[in-house]
Structures are given as C-alpha cells and as structure tokens.
Write a structure and sequence with these properties.
lpxc deacetylase, domain 1; five-stranded mixed β-sheet; about 25% helix; six-stranded mixed β-sheet; alpha+beta; Ribosomal Protein S5, domain 2; 6 helices; about 35% strand; single chain
C-alpha cells in the first residue's frame, strides 16, 4: 500500500512572477492527509484555491486555477516539481496571484521541496492508475495528448516547430525523482523574440528576462541552452505539472505538440473517469 506524503517543514521562496512581473513571497507548509495541493492567497483574506483540474479557468500561456473568487496562474512549474516528488498534500501560501518564476524552470522548486524533506503519512494514497486509453485531440492542428496503462510514470513528447533552429524534437523519460531533476527540472521556458512585444501588450511576460526565459530569434539563441533540446524537455515539465491537477498518475503519457489547453483537458478527462 502506498501512503500519502507531505513535506516535513515550512520552506519559503521569493521572486517575481513571469507574467505579472510582481514581487511575490511563497511559503510551502506541511498539510494533513487528504488535503491535496491547496493555494492560499494571503493577500486575499486567506481564500483557498484547490489545485484540481475542475478549477482550471485559463490556459493562455500558462495554467490558471480559480476558486472562491480568486485565482492563481503559472502554477505548472511548481505542480510539476510536486508531481515528480510525489507530494500528495501541501499548502502553498502566496501574497500575489502568481508564484515566483525563479529561472524559468522547476529546478528551484524541486530543490526547495527536497530541502523541506518528505514525510510519509498514515493514510493510503489514491494513485490515479491509467487502465484505459484517455486521449484529447485538436483535430484542426493534429496535436494530441493521451495516457495509456503503464507500470510507472512515463512521458513521451514530440515537439514540432517550423523554426529552422528548433524543428522536431523528441524525448521519452520514465519519470522518477532522480531522472526528473537531472533531465527535466533544469529545462526553462522559451520565447520567440518577435512575440515578446505582443505578449507584453496583452499583459503577459511582464517579469520575463534573459534571467528566466530562453529567447531565440531568426539568427539563433540569445542566451545559452542547458540542453540542445531544451524546448521539448520544458514541454515535458509542463505536461507533468498540468496532469498533476488530476492527481498522482501511474501511466504512460504520449503527447504531440500539446500545450496547456490539451494537457488540462486530459487532466479533466482523467479526473472525471478515474479520479
């Protein structure tokens, strides 16, 4: 029998939000069994937002969950690190509507959770075991994401980008904590230089810089890469985080150029049929 987990002690992190550009303080606290992952907006009277697929309200360049009249967005990097550590229960206190972006990857979050330690609780874990094919398609583009039965947690992702610098990238990982930290956690979010002004006009990417975003243009990469195929690894990071909204998953996730919209739609399907 697998038992639920939480963290052993409070840990904190400060920084700016990727899209909001605002300074934010984040605190992770241990939580009792069956709490789940709960965001608490200390700047909004302590109102809570449960990190569940049903609470997703936007997937525009990030994943947003909303409940009790408040929201948090760009949660996918933190959720990904929590999924990799198989954390069932934690309280995430924020004094703004977006967690800090750190360096644009999930490595700071992964290491923060590791520094807190993991405590096993007495209650049994309700693992989401994929026992059938769950699939979401975007018929207009041919993009899809699916989950199949598998003894463990595995993600296969193909990224299709028309840019000559990127092209087709593919990776396939059996996900455990060690593999995640080495191969996935350091992969940062990526932006095309031509998109940046448009994003900022939309109120997005206001906290983005070369310190937390990999930027490319028609000539090449503006900042150095951690991996030659960093884009597809970050896509894997995102899908792991988005699917944590359904729960801790046992299965094989296969994705073709999926983004937050398809990922969270699959999370909703899995939560509704297997949760």
């Amino acid at each position: 029998m697998q038992r639920q987990t939480t963290i052993k002690k409070d840990v904190s992190y400060r920084g700016i939000g990727l899209h909001s550009g605002r300074e934010v303080s984040m605190r992770l606290l241990p939580a009792p069994a069956d709490t789940g992952i709960v965001f608490v907006r200390t700047d909004a009277g302590g109102r809570q937002i449960h990190a569940r697929a049903a609470n997703v309200t936007s997937t525009l360049r990030a994943t947003t969950v909303e409940e009790n009249g408040v929201k948090v967005f760009t949660i996918e990097h933190l959720m990904s690190a929590l999924h990799a550590h198989r954390i069932d229960n934690v309280c995430v206190e924020l004094n703004a509507e977006e967690p800090p972006v750190a360096d644009g990857s999930s490595l700071a979050y992964f290491d923060l959770i590791e520094s807190a330690g993991i405590e096993e609780l007495r209650s049994e874990r309700h693992e989401i075991v994929i026992d059938r094919v769950c699939r979401i398609d975007d018929e207009a583009t041919g993009r899809f994401v699916m989950a199949l039965p598998y003894d463990g947690f595995r993600v296969s992702f193909i990224s299709l980008n028309p840019h000559k610098l990127i092209g087709t990238q593919y990776e396939d990982f059996h996900i455990d904590a060690q593999t995640y930290r080495r191969e996935i956690a350091p992969a940062r979010t990526i932006a095309y230089e031509k998109e940046i002004d448009q994003l900022r006009e939309m109120g997005l990417g206001l906290g983005g810089s070369l310190e937390n975003v990999i930027v490319y243009n028609d000539e090449g990469w503006i900042n150095p890469l951690h991996f030659a195929d960093e884009l597809v690894r970050h896509k894997i990071l995102d899908v792991i985080g988005d699917l944590r909204l359904a729960g801790i998953i046992r299965g094989h996730v296969i994705a073709a150029a999926s983004g937050h919209a398809l990922n969270t739609a699959l999370a909703k399907q899995i939560a509704a049929s297997l949760g």
